[in-house]
């Protein structure tokens, strides 16, 4: 591209005739300069460093460089901008409009030339670094900063008098037409290069990875490339296929992690490897096979070929991270929980047997510590606590809760051994979140009668149509969020005491409180199956929530703080839970309830950011290095915090924000007859 | 390693007591400095930049850092060097000596400390950049400058209080113990890392590729890694397995290129691809399978595992280059003969299905032009005409002769379409060089009786034992060098004229000159089979040698020169040929016969240099870019030179050097009866 004849200044620059050249101002950047009549708008924009996209390099093919003239008087700039200060609609624009459609007022900046003063608006969809809008208002937007850039080039034909290779002529064209230099080229791209050049009649589109590596060459023009962001969870693998040019999610898929057949939770999978040599190979194959199924599914949904997927990013907990990468996870099964690597991993898709474009790259976010994985790195990237003034607690609840606390000054991370109770395991009536599972519970304070909702039906159980509507679903169990609500409601209605004892005295008030040996149970649903909350169920949740709270509290100690500005619940569990009930139960410290939110699959969002924004990769590596890693297992205070957190919501910690929102019951002792393990525990403590 | 307390100077530097520190001078570099008593010799050497090898980093394990004390008065240095100025033989040296042997006088410089003034000799086998001796005196030595370096490190164990990945602790150790920074690590090395660290009890040996990439990690100490240099010829694949630490060739292998079943010469293989879609895939597989066979063979011969081969370099003509790399060679089958790439190719061994170390790299030398391949780049690297003052002509004879001409000021390259006559094809009695083939011929000037030697027998055919000794071999045909000698001898004895006509008048002198229709033949061997040199055979060789000469002459024109200082014949054919006969026939221009030599497989030597010397890779890329590529097919003068070069040795060019060495016959016309096509050709020209 030629340099413009003018200075980049608003001072009057004259043309050869002594007349002042027209002024062009670009919005929203405000960059402006004077250019000779006849200068293409794209060229003027480029010379001013205005962010305008182009794949075809100004040939009127891609339509990425569209602009709109802002008409009117611009007193501040001292110009009058008019549509007819642009050259007439050209044959190139006509052809593009006929073929692909051009909205009224839109012009191709590569084809339109300056005739007079202009104020040019660059719509966000014409910018390379466009913003990708995210659903939740409080989150930062993702700025596109593509990992893969596409470049349409015209390549010189071979000449016997100057016998250079096809690749060298392609590189020359990329240098001359795109200022791309010192590129490497994948061998598989070289293998297909000669055919692509000849099929495209010496016009090809080149994909360049991180500005350094030629990874694909297509005959003619091509502007559709995709990337896949994947969160490999122990239970679920969630993936989003994104258009790498727009950042839009064009297809999504969630599927069960087939490793479940080797063990429900992480530690049972590591045990499987320890007891079955080579088991890690089976599990690696299982997860990779599932990823290939996912690729097929999202490509089908988006109507694209799997070969058009050029990039893939991954997050996952350390064990999933290792199994995905073919690293034996046994070291993560016992102290000192050594990761093979805590750095980011950038490799070929073929190196994890992923069948997408043969030259596609994989980027796996860094892990933080032996229990705090790339999923937490993804959460940090998504929630950006390191950019915030607010003291933010982020918890991602799973078999291990991963906990991040801090703000832009310091960031701490730890994991807390909650066990799988929140996922419905270890609970007598517990089940995974699936149709038929109770997910919402309310208990009448006077009668102690419950009502509930099950997944797959919007009606409460006391609605006349509930039975009919749930006939096919059944009421099969209670999922994690249902258990949280049920226990919180049992506490709020006095069925369980602050210490977590099912109060036998309440049996007088309701037949749903029933004796069961030396303890009492609460009958949540009298059907097939009968769903009861036992004293042991309450204990299991108490242990889990105490571990979670103690982990968070430990990090607060390390920072020397007592109050939180914000709490974010990440992960699938976090997005189904009612944050109020979580706080009633004391899973999390007190906080303004308006500032306690669910972030959904924040880890997956982090993977998506790493897919769409080049700079985010350096950012997360830098932040992860700075994160202070706290190992709860070796902190003596953890046990102390754990004991205090067994009570509901807590033995000693005040919950002023919660008390304003919820009518918390006064502390009371259970009926003397209770002699459950909770009772023993009380005696031991004092 | 700590910095020495002294300046790197011969000025008297004193220790804390005011005494002058001892002087240590290292030979052959002459570097010297003063160091405090107790400084390890290796440390002193390192601080002075003296080239001493070490894999174990000064732990007395590898024995690479051996030195010898030069005893005596060194007046120039003003010191007296004595053995007892070194610390006593240490337990570490004793242990090493017991285990691996230490020659008398040798000391481990990492273990021996300075006590007084010393002159230390660093034997060449203790230097990293040691010289690899080559057989021929006129060639430059190869300086070792390893692609792969080995580093023994002790890695910190994981610590729950500082939860870093194993890789990160390894990298820290490499930085602290070897000053290696910003390394990447292959995923397969990460996969095996944890096991290697634990098996080696946190002591491992790391292979680093080009100072940038961790490619292998072995438990404990390992100093044996190998590299393979391969010349992929159309007919033969020749490989040398080298110890990457010493540069020594530890095993060699030559095997037939199995692609021969798709076509004897290059063009017939390209035709096969053109006529059989997918044929290129078959041929690629064939050559890669053969390479894997070669790997097995050389590893077995050297007694090493195929996984200990970490690097492989390749040369080959453009079509072999493309087929090896899985690039369809059809574009090389017709004008404009476009290469897919003329740059060097560095990829994984797995990308060409080569079963050596899973992280091994492949380096393929750059091609020069569509007919001038990576083999010629290898020849240039081996013969170094670009470093010479002498005007050197290098010819590598095959189906196409590849020709290089020049010196350190300019270098030109071309290929000349000789056709396969020199390889024995197109010759009625021709055959490939194999046992039983005639390779040497002498013809009695008076009787015209021939005598010859066959491959596999050292006796001339007129020796009484010849028949008995060749009974198993037979006399099966004439190979390329045999044909050259036979034709040259026929010319020198007057059987063929300067114009290449078999002179019927000679039939009167010997019954071996026989009429055959309108032309005459010469009966070389009257047996089973009968071996005759026909007029057509002479013509085929004339066409081939004229093409070769014309190509060389064309390059001389481009340089504006008439004389050559040196001629080098490369390739298998070049190493079997008698250069004098080649010149008698006029294959090459006149030159001092003492300066006409065979270089053997110079292309393969080039591959070996690229395997052992890191800088040579940049060198050959730079030189190849500067080479002026001449396309003989589009040069009008080529045809003119070709016509003149049909005569023996040449129609007009003088051969003064040759005339001094050989009694060249006076020009004569053949007997008038001759009406062969040579006669027609003469008339046309005349």
TrEMBL record, chains A, B:
Give the source's domain of life in one word: Bacteria
List, as start-end ranges, the regions of compositional bias called Polar residues: 1-14
Pfam families per the record? Fer2, RACo_C_ter, RACo_linker, Raco_middle
- Domain 2Fe-2S ferredoxin-type spans what residues? 22-126
User: What is the protein name stated in its UniProt record?
Assistant: ASKHA domain-containing protein
PROSITE patterns registered for this protein in UniProt: 2FE2S_FER_2
Please list where the region (Disordered) is annotated.
1-21, 666-686
* Species of provenance: Dongia sedimenti
């Amino acid at each position: 591209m030629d340099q413009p004849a003018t200075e980049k200044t608003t001072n009057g620059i004259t043309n050869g005739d002594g007349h002042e050249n027209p002024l062009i101002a670009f919005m929203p950047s405000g960059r402006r300069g004077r250019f000779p009549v006849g200068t293409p708008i794209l060229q003027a924009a480029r010379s001013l460093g205005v962010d305008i996209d182009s794949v075809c390099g100004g040939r009127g093919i891609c339509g990425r460089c569209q602009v709109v003239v802002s008409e009117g008087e611009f007193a501040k700039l001292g110009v009058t901008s008019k549509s007819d200060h642009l050259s007439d609609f050209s044959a190139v624009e006509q052809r593009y409009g006929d073929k692909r459609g051009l909205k009224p007022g839109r012009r191709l900046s590569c084809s339109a030339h300056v005739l007079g003063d202009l104020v040019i608006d660059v719509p966000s969809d014409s910018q390379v670094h466009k913003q990708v809008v995210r659903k939740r208002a409080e989150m930062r937007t993702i700025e596109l900063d593509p990992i893969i850039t596409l470049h349409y080039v015209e390549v010189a034909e071979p000449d016997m008098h100057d016998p250079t290779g096809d690749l060298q002529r392609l590189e020359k064209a990329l240098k001359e037409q795109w200022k791309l230099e010192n590129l490497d080229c994948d061998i598989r791209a070289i293998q297909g290069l000669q055919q692509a050049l000849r099929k495209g009649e010496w016009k090809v589109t080149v994909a360049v990875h991180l500005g350094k590596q030629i990874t694909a060459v297509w005959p003619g023009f091509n502007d559709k490339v995709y990337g896949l962001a994947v969160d490999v969870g122990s239970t679920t693998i969630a993936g989003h296929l994104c258009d790498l040019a727009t950042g839009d999610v064009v297809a999504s898929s969630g599927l069960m992690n087939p490793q479940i057949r080797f063990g429900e939770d992480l530690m049972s999978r590591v045990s499987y490897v320890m007891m079955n040599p080579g088991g890690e190979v089976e599990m690696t194959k299982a997860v990779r096979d599932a990823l290939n199924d996912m690729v097929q599914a999202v490509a089908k949904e988006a109507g694209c070929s799997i070969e058009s997927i050029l990039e893939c990013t991954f997050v996952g907990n350390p064990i999933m991270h290792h199994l995905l990468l073919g690293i034996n996870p046994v070291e993560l099964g016992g102290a000192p929980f050594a990761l093979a690597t805590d750095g980011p991993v950038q490799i070929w898709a073929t190196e994890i047997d992923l069948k997408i474009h043969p030259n596609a790259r994989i980027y796996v976010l860094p892990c933080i510590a032996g229990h705090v994985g790339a999923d937490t790195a993804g959460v940090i990237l998504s929630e950006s606590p390191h950019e915030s003034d607010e003291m933010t607690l982020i918890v991602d609840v799973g078999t291990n809760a991963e906990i991040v606390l801090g703000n832009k000054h310091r960031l701490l991370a730890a994991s807390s051994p909650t066990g799988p109770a929140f996922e419905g395991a270890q609970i007598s009536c517990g089940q995974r979140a699936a149709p038929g599972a109770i997910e919402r519970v309310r208990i009448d304070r006077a009668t102690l009668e419950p009502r509930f909702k099950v997944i797959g039906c919007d009606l409460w159980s006391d609605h006349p149509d509930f039975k009919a509507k749930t006939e096919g679903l059944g009421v099969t169990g209670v999922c994690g969020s249902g258990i949280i609500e049920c226990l919180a409601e049992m506490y709020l209605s006095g069925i369980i005491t602050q210490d977590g004892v099912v109060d036998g005295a309440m049996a007088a008030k309701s037949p749903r409180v029933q004796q069961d040996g030396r303890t009492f149970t609460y009958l949540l649903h009298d059907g097939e199956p009968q769903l009861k909350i036992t004293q042991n169920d309450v204990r299991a949740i108490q242990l889990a929530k105490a571990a979670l709270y103690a982990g968070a509290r430990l990090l607060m100690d390390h920072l020397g703080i007592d109050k939180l500005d914000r709490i974010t619940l990440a992960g699938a569990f976090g997005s189904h839970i009612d944050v109020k009930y979580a706080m009633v139960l004391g899973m999390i410290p007190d906080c303004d309830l308006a500032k306690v939110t669910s972030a959904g699959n924040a880890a997956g969002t982090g993977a998506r950011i790493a897919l769409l924004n080049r700079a985010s990769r350096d950012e997360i590596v830098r932040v992860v290095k700075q994160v202070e890693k706290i190992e709860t297992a070796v902190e003596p205070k953890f046990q102390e915090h754990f004991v205090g957190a067994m009570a509901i919501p807590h033995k000693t910690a005040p919950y002023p924000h919660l008390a304003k929102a919820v009518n918390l019951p006064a502390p009371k002792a259970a009926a003397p007859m209770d002699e459950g393990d909770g009772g023993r525990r009380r005696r031991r403590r004092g």
